[in-house]
Write a structure and sequence with these properties.
homodimer, Arc Repressor Mutant, subunit A, alpha+beta, Dna Ligase, domain 1, three-stranded mixed beta sheet, DNA-binding, two-stranded antiparallel ribbon
Chain lengths: ~150, ~150
DNA sequence: CATTTTTCGAAACATTATAACAGTTGTGCG
DNA sequence: CGCACAACTGTTATAATGTTTCGAAAAATG
């Protein structure tokens, strides 16, 4: 995420938190910034390592901030990687799908209503009530596929 | 999984391993049995706890057996739960979806070609090459939804 | 400004997973 | 058969991820 996008994301978070009556503290802001700056998903302890902020930081510090950001939809957790990425459209709640490149490590967030709907109806056919769908696809991104062919 | 289904699963595994020229050792068989016997997904350390087989067992023992069973498609790993379940149709490779009940903990394995295909095409539209899709839905199963209404 | 709620700091601990290396067993082949 | 090799297993240690708990500080509330 480039500098401009980052600032926009932080602003959006600010506004949304104000609207929702929740506190966007310095700590949470800092964690969101670190997650967004990264090109790839970052682990909790990786964030922790970058949080030398005067006081020492312990795991709960990071996990608390991440929990908050997850609740607000500002970041997503990738279950297959035990890592976090900034959300590309935090304005509205949504069911996303993630394409994870095993080669370069980058992740693309899809938001296909077709996929979400298809899965929802398949689930509901069995009487199941979906709450939180987790859809992550491991594979190779366009760029890396291209590179592989050249070599 | 009831006793009959379990025996069938173990037999199937036997046959498939023979066909594939891989070894279905006592260790692996025991782990598969433990996973299949469980009503719900079981963690690696839970399996470990049930492996008092004369010699002591350490984590790598279980993880190695599980890796083998995963490769052969005899069990699945649920990324959101860090737990394993027996596969309900190991005969053919397949992309499954899992419906995980947050209430009773039971898991239903779907095998909807519609869902798999839909996701595959959504991914490929972006030039992405899917390898391993992970689809897990947290929610409430039919039974538990029903019970909740009664109370 | 006292009260209540929320957030944060700190230490310990719990859970899940892997690395590294040695020993053991099974398999194929001369 | 018996040797050589590969695959599997045992063992110890450690890494990586995530939680519990308790108490202090800071902020919102009335």
């Amino acid at each position: 995420m480039d500098e401009e996008t980052l600032q926009a994301a932080l602003n959006t978070a600010d506004v949304l938190c104000a609207q929702r009556g929740v506190r966007f503290t310095a700590q949470r802001r800092r964690v969101l910034e670190l997650v967004c700056r990264a090109e790839r998903p970052v682990g909790a302890y990786e964030i922790l390592g970058q949080l030398h902020t005067g006081a020492t930081a312990a795991p709960p510090t990071v996990y608390r901030a991440l929990d908050f950001l997850l609740e607000q939809g500002f970041v997503h957790k990738l279950e297959t990687l035990h890592a976090f990425i900034g959300c590309t459209h935090p304005e509205h709640p949504h069911a996303s799908q993630f394409l994870i490149c095993a080669d370069c490590g980058r992740v693309k967030e899809l938001e296909s209503e077709a996929v979400a709907g298809c899965l929802r109806s398949a689930a509901q056919e069995t009487g199941f009530h979906p709450k939180r769908p987790v859809i992550e696809v491991l594979g190779t991104c366009a760029q890396c596929t291209h590179k592989a062919k050249k070599v």
